[in-house]
Amino acid sequence: MRIYIMADMEGISGIACREQTDRGHFRYAEGRRLLTGDVNAAVKGAMDAGADEVLVADAHGASFNLLPEALDPRARLLVGTPQKGPRLSCLDASVSGMFLIGYHAMAGTLRAVLEHTMSSKTWHSVRVNGKPIGEVGIDAGMAAAAGVPTILVTGDDKVCAEARALLGDVETACVKQGLGRHHAMCLSPQEAAVRIEKAAKRAVERLAAGGTGFRLPAHEGPVTISITYKHTEDADNAASSVHARRVDGYTVEEDYRTFADWYGGLAK
Ligand SMILES: [Zn+2]
Q1: How much distance in Å is there from the Cα of 209 to the middle of ligand 1?
Q2: With contact defined as beta carbons under 8 Å apart, do 86 and 241 qualify?
Q3: Which pLDDT belongs to residue 267?
Q4: Contact (Cβ atoms closer than 8 angstroms) between residue 107 and residue 117
Q5: Are 109 and 228 contained in the same domain?
Q6: Can you give the residue range of the structural domain that contains 241?
Q7: Contacts for 217-222 with beta carbons within 8 Å, 24 or more apart?
Q8: Do 71 and 194 belong to one domain?
Q9: How far apart are CA 34 and CA 11, in angstroms?
Q10: Kindly report the CA angle at 160 between 195 and 181, in degrees rounded to 5?
Q11: Looking at the 3D structure of the chain, how many domains does it have?
């Protein structure tokens, strides 16, 4: 079994402010350490449950967040940001299941730690065929297009609820309770690691037993992606693309042949 881990930072245990996730700030070193701890717990759980291979995609910001020297040596690390190409690099049908580690709720979620969708600075909200979507929905949808189920989501209580609403009986590990955008009640990183490891183990064991209960949130056929920006000047820029339709001052729509085509398609 091959397990693919997408690792973000905002939903990592002990992280509750932007400074911990921003390179260049002195608190970023702490964020990197905490991130590596949560990811290692997930790798251990997957391996203990019989995974043959774990690939970790360092997906926050411009990548290069995980501490490579501290990563569980059984995992392989995928770093860097290709200019063009699939968002889920190297994810294809040979992958048995995906973990979303350190994820966060969609933009606008009440009392959710560092909630946003793709861009905190410019995106207000996103809809796919009229339905609001966050990063869990985007990445689970992309993986589903390759036939890969999302089997574990970790982060605050809000992203865990968002994941269950979308993915049904997905495994979740809640590492903090969101009290505000920059306010959380956190488990200690050690306790968070215990919970992540257990949930990762359960997810891979369920997969090995046939994977019943994991839902593929596949989008059939063409999709309309509608992005509402925070500032009209960003909508002006987006609207300059040949396929874009301007809906109003803040909102731009585009049609795609398939959902996966939106973010650079699938891995080839
Ligand atoms: Zn992030």
Answers
A1: 32
A2: no
A3: 78
A4: yes
A5: no
A6: 223-263
A7: 217/137, 217/140, 217/141, 217/144, 217/150, 217/166, 217/167, 218/141, 218/144, 218/145, 218/259, 219/128, 219/129, 219/141, 219/144, 219/145, 219/258, 219/259, 221/258, 222/255, 222/256, 222/257, 222/258
A8: yes
A9: 10
A10: 105
A11: 2
Which residue among the candidates 116, 124, 183, 231 is catalytic per the annotation? Answer: 116
State which residues have CB under 5 angstroms from ligand 1, the bound ion.
8-9, 60
Residues 123 and 172 in one domain: yes
Token pair of 243, please?
């396929």
Helix/strand/coil for 83: coil
Kindly give the distance from the C-alpha atom of residue 256 to the centroid of ligand 1, in angstroms, as a whole number.
25
What stretches in the chain show pLDDT beneath 50? Answer: none
What is the pTM (predicted TM-score) of this model?
Answer: 0.96
Same domain, 34 and 142: yes
Name the residue with tokens 């369920």: 206
Q: Nearest 5 degrees, angle CA 239-CA 224-CA 254?
A: 20
One domain, residues 249 and 128: no
Distance 115 CA to ligand 1 centre (A): 10
Residue 217 lies in a domain: no
- Of the residues 184, 208, 232, the one at which a domain ends: 208
Q: What is the whole-number distance in angstroms between the Cα of residue 147 and the centre of ligand 1?
A: 24
Whether 116 sits among the annotated catalytic residues: the reply is yes
Please indicate, yes or no, whether residues 107 and 240 belong to a single structural domain of this protein: no
Query: Is residue 229 located within the same domain as residue 203?
Result: no
Q: What is the pLDDT of residue 265?
A: 76
| pLDDT, tens only, 215-253 | 998 888 999 999 999 999 999 999 998 889 999 999 999
